[in-house]
Structures are given as structure tokens and as C-alpha cells.
Amino acid sequence: MSDYQTQLEQIRDNISQLDGQLLKLLADRQQLTNQVAETKIRAHLQVRDPLREEQLLIKLIKQGQGMGLTPQYVTQLFHVIIEDSVLNQQMLLAQKANPDNDLPLNRVAFLGDKGSYSYLATQKYFSRRPGELMEMGCQSFDEIVAKVESAEADYAVLPIENTSSGSINEVYDLLQHTSLSIIGELTHPVEHALLVAAETDISQLKTLYAHPQVFSQCSHFLAELGNIEVKPTDSTSAAMLKANELKDPAVAAIGSAAGGALYGLTPIKSNLANQKENHSRFIVVSRKAVNVPLQIPSKTTLVMSTVQKPGALVEALLVLRDNQINMTKLESRPINGNPWEEMFYIDVEGNLQDGPMQSALESLRGMTRYLKILGCYPTEEVIPTRVAAASALRQ
Hints:
By secondary structure, the chain is an alpha/beta fold.
């Protein structure tokens, strides 16, 4: 080994030791944030304190500058740390409010098999929850919901919308008719890659497997490919499994690089989606609703139909405005057997235990033909802390 290689190995060893120390410090910090959560439970304090978070970031940015670290680097790093702290505190608060939900084994139904986007979202959501995870891959949304309704599964993870292809109507239609409750949500990045099982290049491809939603999200890329046969599959994992089985240089699948690795597939092109910031929102449903402590930022999802008169929907939405409730989603779906009539799905920021929310629901019940609460649940979208004084820090 040359002197250069010896020196490089020594530097890498030193870096590895520092990485280990960083992990230990992060674990110690997480334990302290858990103690903070216990204190907030007893004192009935909100999880987030935006002013303190901003002051903390300003202090850290100044300290980092003194050590040769850029404000951008420090801010990005501590955004991740703060997000993790917030989500852990929310989880502990939710556990205290729902002690019966701590299961030794969480049986979770989702679309597809290992490697599908629903599988990756399931892994992400339940990584923070106590108990082991039992994965139950399904071939359709109907099958997923049926497994939870029949108590074969405890939870289901369902994709509800995508930033590129929009709402997933089949899931909305199922929510209207099920007795299950939404108990959680998460947003997961969707990073489509062209995956192959045999050495090849794009010019050799003749057949492409993917879920129909994926084809929709990558329509611009498909148009560039030109004359290629697209074959829809029930899930992203089914597409990757097909490519693995065929091992044909003329065949590819579209899915995540992480999922493809589980099937021995190699990405030959990435970032295929029409929108480069491509995310899917998933909901978690269960047979039993959850209690959401008021300290936790929460959402409520409801479905309603209005009376058939001009301005009926506007009047209903004005109820939300008058109660200072922010609506984050409005989706309409046709009512089977009632031509030209719509069912409206609404997401709002708010907790069912809030006075304004209770007042709004009471008013809505008096002016709608049908109203059903689909769930009140913690929101896992942690808005990054803004540092208003960032420009001053650069001076």
C-alpha cells in the first residue's frame, strides 16, 4: 500500500469515528426531546414553539459560521433534526392518548409487494411506531380495505393523491362506503427510475411495465421514447417482478431505485416524472378512530353532499371560513345512481375537539343532506422553521 493510500485510509478511519460520535450525540438528543414531550404532556403545551425554533436556528447559524460552516448547511441539517424531534414528540403524545393502540404486532395491508411505493410508505410510517411490522401485500384497493374490515389486518396504507397525476378516485370512492377511520397520513417522495434486469440501453427497449398511475406521471418521458409497448400492472412491485423474471434487455420497469434493488434491477435513467418535485400522499386507516391531543397539529377529513339549490356548496364552505378553519383539499366525486349529483370530500386543518370545529360541524349537519367524518388524525407535514433574520446573519 502506498503512502497516499495509507494516509487516505487513516483519514477515512477518523471520519468513521466522528460519524459514530455524531450518531451517539443524535441519539442522546432524541432522548432529551422525549423528556421534553413528557413535560409538554403534563403541562398541556403545544409541540411546536416557532419563536424558540427560530432563535435556536439563528444561534446555531452564528456558531456554525464561526466554525467555517455555511448558514445553508446548518439550516438544512437542523431542519431535519427539528422535523425528527417534532414527529417523535407527536408520536409520544398520540401514544399517551391512545394506549390501547400499542400492539406487539402491526398487521398492515398495502398495494403491491416489497418494493412498491406503498410498501416504502408503510415502512416509513411504522418505523416510528412501537411493535413489529407484518407486511400484507394486496393486489387491489378493495382487497386492502376488506382485510382491515374483516380484522385480518390492523391497518391499511392507501395512496390518496399525487402531485403529478392528482387524486386517486378509486380510493376516494372506497372511503365513502367503508366504516374504517383515517388515523394518520404521510407524504412520500416518488422518484421514478427506469429499471432493467439485463445489461441494455434505452434504444434497445421494446416493452415497459408499470402501474397506470406511474405511466400517467411519466407521460412526457414515454412520449420521448416513441414506439414502445407499455403494459400496465396492478402495482409497481408487480412491474419490477416481471422485469426480474424476464431478464430481457428489451424489457424495463418503472419504479423506485430502492424498490428495484430488492428485485436485482439496475436503474439506467432517473427522474422520469413530469414534475421533478413528485410526491404521493398516503392515508392510514383502521377500524377504530384515534384521539388526537390538542397539542398536535391535526387534520379532519369529511365527506358531504349538499342540497340541490344554487350556492349550496358555497354556503357550506363559508361555514369553514366563518369559523377560521383552513380547507386544504376539496374533491368531488359523482354519486352512483344520482346523475349530476356530487359527493364532496374535504380536508381541513383542525381537531374534532376544537370549539370552532364542533361549531362548524353543527352548522354543516343542519345544511347538508349527508355528512360523514372520515377521520381526525395527526398531520406529519412538518413545515420547516423560517429564519427571518437570515439576511442579517450574512452581514
